[in-house]
Amino acid sequence: MPSNKNSRPKIGLVGGGNIGGILAQLACEKNLGDVAVFDINAGTAQGKALDIASSAAVEGFHANLEGGDNPAILKDAQVVIVTAGLPRKPGMSRDDLVESNAKIVSSIARHIKEQAPDAFVVCITNPLDVMVGHLQREANMPHEKVVGMAGVLDSARFRHFLALLLGVSEQDISAFVLGGHGDSMVPLARYSSVAGIPLPEIVRMGWTTQEKIDAVIERTRKGGAEVVNLMGTSAYFAPAASAIAMAQAYLHDEKRIFPCAAYCKGVYGVDGLYVGVPALIGAGGIEKIVEIELGEQERTLFQQSIDAVAALNEVLGALQQQGKI
Ligand code: TXD
User: Fold this and answer.
1) In sequence order, what are the residues at sequence separation of 6 or more whose Cβ sits closer than 8 angstroms to the Cβ of residue 319?
2) pLDDT of residue 184
3) Which residue has the least CA distance to atom 11 on ligand 1?
């Protein structure tokens, strides 16, 4: 009987729900490696692993997939992507998930530390900016190997809405989003461009108006809630695609610059907090944080976003003090 041992990397997925299932499928179809889906609902994990594995004959990928509720299947994973937690329902804010999801993240952080201590960990669970910091502290893994996925998704939404407005491909739009994953996020028009043409120049040359750009920025801020209100739960296709891009940058040492929830200390005036900033991802994990010059209004908005993340961290701290987490 041939061994399942091979030289492929292993991607561990903690949570095999809406996003987790798409993560597993994308990881396979991009031939990133073998996939292990860990979920407290063993049937969900095993069923999705089997279903995706059955598509190999059609899709032509090569990957071993396994699923289950034993965290040991995460053993020696090079990448771990965490979606374990409750998603939002209509009317809920991301912040409403703090207590429930912090408890879940506490429980899985120890599994990750034990089974895959050298992994690059991408946290998706909301409220993202707080959960990624909680995960890093509970797992006690290096800051550069624990990152949050939100900015890639928010920037992708920004690029899509700009593409609709301007009638151009998302591929020719570069967009920047800073700050927390929430209403306080800071889409930066000044650092965004269309085929290299900065957005302010796009307005000056009359291609569109500032009012329409501002409307796109507002729609980007509310992009998550728009999906929740349409389908009754959080988005999952674009979040999964975004996290896989980050995982691929690590596995293939691509030196990609993504907006990520990265640990900031001594940059952007932040002293020890996870917040959305441009970061370079390669084989070392978060290899560099790119500190851009911010104008006065941009700095004010970014600081408001940092303050919102810090305030939510204080809510988490209070819950821990009360022994609730
Ligand atoms: O950009 C972003 N970061 C956000 C994140 C974008 C969209 C969704 N965002 C958040 O991701 C969302 O608010 C949730 O907190 C997570 C996961 O969303 P998803 O839609 O995938 O949630 P599901 O479908 O409920 O899947 C969660 C799975 C589910 O199968 C549970 O059984 C499992 O997590 N789960 C666990 N697995 C392992 N261990 C524990 N303790 C556990 N608890 C739940």
Assistant:
1) 98, 99, 102, 325
2) 84
3) 125
Least confident of 2-16, 191-205, 212-226, 307-321: 2-16
d(CA 295, CA 301): 10
User: Is the minimum distance from the CB of 127 to ligand 1 under 6 angstroms?
Assistant: no
> Which of 206-215, 295-304, 311-320 holds the top average pLDDT?
206-215
Q: Give the pLDDT of residue 2.
A: 59
What mean pLDDT value characterizes the chain? 95
Output the CA 167–ligand 1 centroid distance in Å.
34
Residue 174: φ, ψ to 5°? -110, 125
Ligand 1 center to residue 83 CA distance, Å? 4
Task: Give me the pLDDT at residue 3, please.
Answer: 61
- Residue-wise pLDDT for 134-187, tens only, equals 999 999 999 999 999 999 999 999 999 999 999 999 999 999 899 888 788 898
246 CB neighbour count, 10 Å cutoff: 26
- 61 SS3 class: coil
Q: Whose CA is nearest to atom 13 of ligand 1?
A: 87
Task: Retrieve residue 67's tokens.
Answer: 């699923």
Active site annotation includes 181: yes
Tokens of 124: 């998706």
**Ligand 1 in reach of 84 Cβ (< 6 A):** yes
How far is ligand 1, taken at its centre, from the CA of residue 86, in Å? 5
In this prediction the pTM is 0.96
Q: Ligand 1: does its nearest atom lie under 6 Å from the Cβ of 14?
A: yes
- CA of residue 268 to ligand 1 center, whole Å: 30
Q: Residues 6 or more apart from 101 whose CB is under 8 A from it?
A: 85, 86, 125, 126, 127, 131
Q: Indicate the top mutation candidate among 40, 73, 111, 158 to test ligand 1's pocket, ranked by most ligand atoms within 8 A of CB.
A: 40
Q: What is the DSSP letter of 163?
A: H
Mean pLDDT calculated for residue range 77-81: 98
**pLDDT of res. 149:** 98
